[in-house]
């Protein structure tokens, strides 16, 4: 575990048992509990530029999602349940409960944010605050893809049936993932990433079981996760926790038609009618590309009184 240790000085680390194996966790700091969840194709290391600052006022918990990083990568079931965001949300609840936290704040980026809003809808009493970094609701993304407003890109490719995507990626996984990541940064390169962080992401993605897990994550997004979103929208369910939406003006806004709704508008018109937040100058990886401006929005939000 020493390879990532200096990213999080003073943080404890270990494994926590869940319904589908174990998840890897680091935690440190004092104060109200705050869970940080990473996105695709990264690990908990993506928070290394902000975790120390947040730990000054919070007990910060960093967790590798199932299938990612050092967490177990169970065999998937074609996108039905194993890699659904509902199941990953249960992992998060279990970890936080084992650490003694019944209620907690959660900030997620990318896939981790999808776990976050699903957990908020499924377990409305658990979250005090919810931070959603650079995403739209899963159902809204698929609607835009199917309408032709945005390309299907990796969403459509990764959700194809096994083993097509797994075999294609496995020919050169590092090249595949780093092409995606560089295309999502504001400057179109990998220069924004710490060299050691990139090495951690490479190690965590260059393995057949991990590649399969990533694909299953997206298969679940195209099927189970989307169906659960549809059901909640039909039932007019909304997130009760205080919610903050932060997005990168280059990445998320750049995928929309000019004059279209902002990310905040989309959330207010769906699952989070009272959401606050705003955009910052960044590509997709806000916590690594522009941590200062992300924290300028996030820290005051986390210090507000919970509803």
Give me the secondary-structure topology.
Blueprint: E1 12-18, E2 21-28, E3 33-37, H1 51-54, E4 59-63, H2 85-98, E5 104-109, H3 111-122, E6 127-133, H4 138-147, H5 153-158, H6 164-170, H7 173-184, H8 195-205, H9 208-222, H10 224-234, E7 242-248, H11 263-268, E8 276-280, H12 286-289, H13 291-303
Helix pairs in contact: 2-3, 6-9, 9-10
- Mean pLDDT value: 95
Contiguous helical run count = 13
Unreliable stretches = 254-258
CATH class: Alpha Beta
Category from helices, strands and their pairing:
alpha/beta
> What is the straight-line distance between the termini?
38 Å
Largest sheet: 8 strands, mixed
Number of strands: 8
- The CATH topology annotation reads as Rossmann fold
Question: N-to-C SSE series?
Answer: EEEHEHEHEHHHHHHHEHEHH
CATH architecture: 3-Layer(aba) Sandwich
Total domains: 1
**Amount of beta strand:** 15-25%
Which percent range fits the helix content?
A: 40-55%
Instruction: Give Rg in angstroms.
Output: 18 Å
Q: What do we call the CATH homologous superfamily? A: Alpha/Beta hydrolase fold, catalytic domain
Shape: globular
Strand order of the largest sheet: 1-2-4-3-5-6-7-8
Protein name: Haloacetate dehalogenase
EC number: 3.8.1.3
Enzyme class: hydrolase
Pfam families: Abhydrolase_1
